Amino acid sequence: RPAQSALGGPLPLPPARVPERRTPARCHAPRHPGRHAALHSGPSALPAGELRQPGVNRLTQTLVPVPLSQPLGGPGPAQLSPSLAAMSLQSSTPEALRVVNLLQERNLLPPIPIPPPTPCLQQDLQKINCNPEVFRSTLTSIPQTQSLLNKAKMPLGLLLHPFKDLSQLPVVTSSTIVRCRSCRTYINPFVSFLDQRRWKCNLCYRVNDVPEEFMYNPVSRSYGEPHKRPEVQNATIEFIAPSEYMLRPPQPAVYLFHSSTWSHNAVETGLPERLLLPGDSRTKIGFVTFDSTIHFYNLQEGLSQPQMLIVSDIDDIFLPTPDSLLVNLNECKELVQDLLKSLPTLFQKTMETQSALGSALQAAYKLLLPTGGRMSVFQTQLPNLGVGALQSREDPNQRASAKDVQHLSPATDFYKKLALDCSGQQVAVDLFLLSSQYCDLASLGCISRYSAGSVYYYPSYHHQHNPAQVECFQRDLKRYLTRKIGFEAVMRIRCSKGMSIHTFHGNFFVRSTDLLSLPNVNPDAGFAVQMSIEENLDDMQIVSFQAALLYTSSKGERRIRVHTLCLPVVNSLSDIFAGADVQAITGLLACMAVDRSATASLSDARDAMTNAAIDSLASYRQSVLSIQQPGLLAPACLRLFPLFILALLKQKAFRTGTSTRLDDRLFAMCQLKYQPLVYSMLMIHPALYRVDDLSDEGALNINERTVPQPRVLQLSVEKLSREAAFLMDAGTVMYLWVGRSCQPAFLTQVLGVSSYAAVPDNLHLLPELDTAESQRTRAFIGWLRDQRTHHVDESQLKPTFMQNMIEDRTESALSYYEFLLHLQQQISK
């Protein structure tokens, strides 16, 4: 099907480039008149940035023209004078608005990773604004009105990484946490002090009194300067919460390990005998295994060895000895170690092939009911017995279908309902899927999604035949067991008056309109929200957003982590486009497309993503460009937008026409919804580097280690060379591509082999050689690894490596240039 575009219709290309083979069933005509392929949810039919299906009206809302010359009137916070109006972006054309003809300028990828745009704020405010790795907006200049936002055709939303590991985090211990009496916003750097005794909230503009205790600055040990306190000097801060922030005494750290007996090999290669889990003297631990029956383990202090207690009635689960199944880790450490030693051999000779996962999860839920905690589930097959039993829904013959993909939604609501029960009792479920068979991640993933857990997936896992997967699992598990954790957490996101949040993305349960229930929160979890403008922001110069995360630390402290982001308000389309954050827009659209794939269809989601690029570039051409020129034109800040959209269309989550296992697709969707933006962007558009000629020129010096900085290359086969070696960083995996005629120096001094033919087939870790070239290469890979939280292995999978060459044409998908021609044709219609 060479003539079929990845977008589902006949190609808009000259006949000489593509043979004419068209399939009428895949044309752009709407399948259901009046049904829009818009990624939307929320109050309005098509909020800003929503996407349309070809052949359907572009926008159903009436666009109200906004006078673009209207000044930014109205008084702003006292701290913000002189007026930001004097800082208009239009005084000179900024680099972000430089016109780029995408069809002519081919080498658009910057040589270094793309930094996020800087909001156009006063210098003193910008210095203390929130770190974009923690909190960033798709638009760094907020439109004054919803109609102006609609006209820009770009989505407005926030992307958060609220529990990120931070090297510097100010922590405040105070009996008085100062908050607005009206909207409950925490005092922050963007409030205004009318005088020493009064401050004005930057979200609702209420004037509040400054408490007496807040007059004293614990850092400078001075009195009478409340504006110099840490809470007003840091956009990210953590409070140790007093008793009024507790509904009950802080829970202990409770960990329950829950494994199918078929997983014993996985546990054998993963769980260390000495578990170094975050916690204190109250930390509790327990174990449950299952096949067609449920096995509990009595670890009561005083026993000479652990006791296995078997419950065979899976339809009426009960706890045989409720008080001795979850035990204090410090008091029962030896029994726990004995159990971890014996677990791998307990089921070595089992012939059991049944899996009562649903009943086992119900049992584990009962066990954690009194305390809450974290449940770690290791599963190796499709559950096939009792409640929650599933049947295979995948047809291997349909994996490469260019038609719509079926079964992206759960087969049963059992796992979602149980997850909501878990969430209500402060229990999060983390799922480790270690299987070479179909496991129905669409159904099983719900147990983690709605309980604020995580999903780990290892396809083709085998503890003997796949050492790379074992290594990956072990490193992931080590990070998982030792990383920071927050229990019984809730997160609330507030925004300035006139704005509203209408859709959340991530793993959580929405307890009320703006409150996310997070039984566990971890440093690797990301969130996104879509926003709309409900009231005109005419009298505002800035708006603010605040995320407050209340959690219990593993040491039993109740803490509140607060992030505050400040952005300017603008009244012209050119200013909106100048502040567009192309990576944040791509990340939010990916989340929206995952939802659309499940609620409508994969083809709807693909059409909608394509139209996101068409609509925004058409709006720019029609409403911002003063001189019309031929070609496909984009502002410099959006020059990579079509490339990223094409990358999404070719991503495992959304691609068609390429053989993709259903669970692989669903896991990619989970990652796009759950991962922080910095990780998901590498999944969407991997980074390619040449590594056989690394040098110290332009290198970074980090902890007395020299880290080379090779330039980022375009993802095209034409950038590869037989005489070289290349590293592709795709987020969760790195691929090392070695050319057949690669320099002998690289082979001997980095790979430790004498020739290309001697490169081992199962190379998944670079050897540690005492050569300058080896040290440089390992330093660079180590530096890349240090920037993420999960294990990354160097893999030799050539087909997958080539599938990530996004700019090249494949049998079932357009090349980047062909995609640009398609966009140009749609825009000029």
From TrEMBL:
Molecular function via GO: SNARE binding; zinc ion binding
Domain Sec23/Sec24 trunk: 276-481
Lineage: Eukaryota, Metazoa, Chordata, Craniata, Vertebrata
Sequence ranges assigned to domain Sec23/Sec24 helical in this UniProt record: 581-681
Main location as per UniProt: cytoplasm
Protein name per the record: SEC24 homolog A, COPII coat complex component
Entry's Gene Ontology BP terms: COPII-coated vesicle cargo loading; intracellular protein transport
Topology with respect to the bilayer: Peripheral membrane protein
Ranges where the Sec23/Sec24 beta-sandwich domain occurs: 486-570
Protein location: Cytoplasm, Cytosol; Cytoplasmic vesicle, COPII-coated vesicle membrane; Endoplasmic reticulum membrane
SUPFAM superfamilies in the record: beta-sandwich domain of Sec23/24, C-terminal, gelsolin-like domain of Sec23/24, Helical domain of Sec23/24, vWA-like, Zn-finger domain of Sec23/24
All copies of domain Gelsolin-like, residue ranges: 707-781
Family from the record: Belongs to the SEC23/SEC24 family. SEC24 subfamily.
